Amino acid sequence: MSLLRSFDSDEVVLHRLFFALMPDAGIVPEIAAVRGEIGVAKSHVLDHRLHITLWALDLPMSPTPGLIADLCAAAARVEGPALRLVLQELVGNGHVTCLKPGEPMPVLKAFQQRLQLAIADAGIWPNRGFRFDPHMTLAYGQDGGVRRPIWPLSWRAEEFMLVHSLVGLTEHVVLGRWKLG
Q1: What are the angstrom distances between the C-alpha of 41 and each of 12, 139, 145?
Q2: At what angle do helices 65-76 and 106-121 cross, to 10 degrees?
Q3: Is residue 4's pLDDT more than 90?
Q4: Which residues are registered as beta bridge partners of 110?
Q5: Cα(80)–Cα(35) distance, integer angstroms
Q6: C-alpha of 77 from chain center
Q7: 8-state DSSP, 86
Q8: Could you identify which of 99, 114, 129, 138 might form a hypothetical disulfide with 87, taking C-beta atoms 3.0 to 4.6 angstroms apart as the criterion?
Q9: Do 39 and 141 meet the contact criterion of CB atoms below 8 Å apart?
Q10: Could you report the per-residue pLDDT of 29-69, keeping only the tens digit for each?
Q11: CB of 158 within 8 A of CB of 179?
């Protein structure tokens, strides 16, 4: 079993596998500008780790090659159009601050459901209690809460990916990419 420990604490590091949509390079500076306006936080999500999670599974050890292969095979069976994503609300609760859509995104929801069904058909289930709630985390551990509209941040997601995250070490490794559209 390969439990990792972060370098500055005794906190056990989880391995998280997640499917995600990443913002394109053109919109990242605008997202970073919003993140810069939120002020002091324990940690800010760096530009290269910004994403919208579609599905997630936490593991106490490194994922097996078989699990990764099964997730990749399931993802390869999922087709969908390129997705227009629009985030237009800044929401924070003192623990996490994120961007959210101001309106429902039925095409995104339908795509996420197809992905989740394909993964379930492979006999793999997400974290207990996982509920798809489209958002992009900007920071953790901010004082106070916030909820306000922002100028819409919009981009077209042309692909989705499978990422292996070492929670606590802020390391993301892309394991697979699939085109949309």
Answers
A1: 22, 6, 12
A2: 130
A3: no
A4: none
A5: 30
A6: 20
A7: E
A8: 99
A9: no
A10: 999 999 998 888 888 999 999 999 999 999 999 999 999 99
A11: yes
Who contacts 80 (Cβ-Cβ below 8 Å, separation ≥6)? 107, 110, 111, 114, 180, 181
The domain segmentation of the chain, as residue ranges, is 21-52+64-155
Q: Locate tokens 């996982």: which residue?
A: 130
- CATH fold, domain 21-52+64-155, is Cyclic Phosphodiesterase; Chain: A, (3.90.1140)
**Torsion sign, CA atoms 106, 148, 55, 158:** positive
Helix (H) or strand (E) holding 42: strand 41-44
* Residue 176, token pair as written in the block: 């697979």
Residue 13 has pLDDT above 80, yes or no: no
Residue 132, class by beta-carbon neighbours within 10 Å (0-12 exposed, 13-18 middle, 19+ buried)? middle
pTM of the shown model: 0.90
Contacting residues for 28 by C-beta, under 8 A, at least 6 apart = 47, 50
Closest CA to 83 of 57, 56, 115: 115
Residue 136's region, left for phi above 0, alpha for psi from -120 to 50, else beta, is beta
pLDDT value of residue 1:
32
